[in-house]
Design brief:
Oligomer: single chain
Helix content: 25-40%
Number of strands: 15
Distance between the termini: 39 Å
Low-confidence stretches: 1-5
Largest sheet: 5 strands, antiparallel
Radius of gyration: 20 Å
């Protein structure tokens, strides 16, 4: 996957962001920016690091390494940004079967604690991520940032940078439309061309490789990298992670005559989502489509994510009429 714009421009933006926000003046933030400025690290881990789906005693860690066959990836988890208070470490593999993405569920952690993590391939180390477990017991306050509808060609993800640098935020909740399926000539084409953020691949995404490439593009955004490194993510999808307005048997923006079988496309989009997002793989007996989870924040709040796109939605009347009109053309 090639870098979306020149490395010098990326690093200048990273350093400017850090200076303006105060990120440079934290021990953890300075290490993040140093890793972004390191040519080897920023190339090998060009899609950053992330964490997500926290529980009271565990959290999922994610990264991706530059494809080069099967790579041995070491990971480390500590309670301090200097990694002197090491809690756990381990080794896993990045393979082509999962598009060289890595997911590790770290267990036996303490509730409501902040942890720091990083990945290593040989001597090359990723930027350090910061994560936390769900709090337990009495809780006076909770900071959750809410994001949705992030469409790459419409602009830089500056809101993600703000989220990354907000000390009052504990978790990020992404409500869906983390990416969009349209081609470079689709929705947002003019805006994307004007600022050098046209969708890749250039055509509407349909195959597994298409969805993988689109996820990869979104995760090269600087704001995205900073937000994912700064806070654990709780995410659910809406429709555009597959295509516009899906139901059990198809979608408004899926044309079987030219785009093939709907279920094949849907399954490809879900596979790429589970590869590229910091979400836990389905429990035994559940399919990828059944993205139902519950999160408890001490005695203050609880959150349940509901899957409403792929497991129980019939075709809407407006979409049904549009499909009928299309078939008459």
């Amino acid at each position: 996957m090639h870098f979306p714009y020149p490395r010098r421009k990326f690093l200048k933006a990273a350093l400017t962001t850090g200076a303006a926000s105060g990120l440079l003046f934290s021990a953890w933030g300075s290490k993040v920016l140093a890793a972004l400025a390191d040519p080897e690290s920023s190339q090998l881990f060009s899609h950053g690091v992330a964490s997500g789906d926290p529980t009271h005693d565990s959290v999922l860690l994610w990264t991706r390494v530059l494809p080069s066959g099967s790579a041995t990836v070491d990971w480390e988890l500590a309670t301090d940004p200097d990694f002197t208070q090491m809690q756990q470490r381990g080794t896993t593999a990045a393979t082509a079967a999962r598009d060289h993405t890595v997911k590790v569920v770290v267990e036996d952690l303490q509730p409501g604690e902040t942890y720091y993590y990083r990945f290593r391939v040989g001597e090359v180390v990723s930027e350090p991520g910061r994560t936390r477990t769900l709090p337990a017991g009495p809780l006076a306050q909770l900071g959750i940032a809410i994001a949705s509808c992030s469409n790459y060609p419409f602009g830089f993800f500056n809101a993600y940078e703000i989220i990354a640098n907000d000390a009052d935020i504990d978790f990020v909740l992404h409500l869906g439309d983390y990416l969009y399926e349209y081609g470079a000539d689709g929705w947002g084409a003019a805006e994307g061309a004007a600022i050098g953020r046209a969708h890749a691949p250039a055509h509407e995404i349909v195959s597994l490789q298409d969805y993988r490439e689109r996820h990869a593009q979104y995760k090269t955004d600087l704001g995205s990298r900073l937000m994912h490194a700064a806070h654990p993510l709780i995410s659910t999808w809406d429709d555009h992670e597959s295509t516009n307005n899906p139901w059990l048997g198809g979608a408004q923006n899926h044309q079987p005559d030219t785009e093939g079988d709907w279920r094949t496309r849907r399954d490809a989009s879900l596979q790429a989502y589970f590869e590229w997002m910091p979400v836990r793989d389905p429990e035994p007996g559940l399919s990828r489509a059944e993205l139902w989870r519950h999160f408890s924040f001490g005695d203050l709040a609880s959150l349940t994510t509901l899957e409403t796109r792929h497991t129980g939605r019939k075709i809407g009347r407006a979409v049904q009429q549009e499909c009928r009109d299309r078939s008459r053309m």
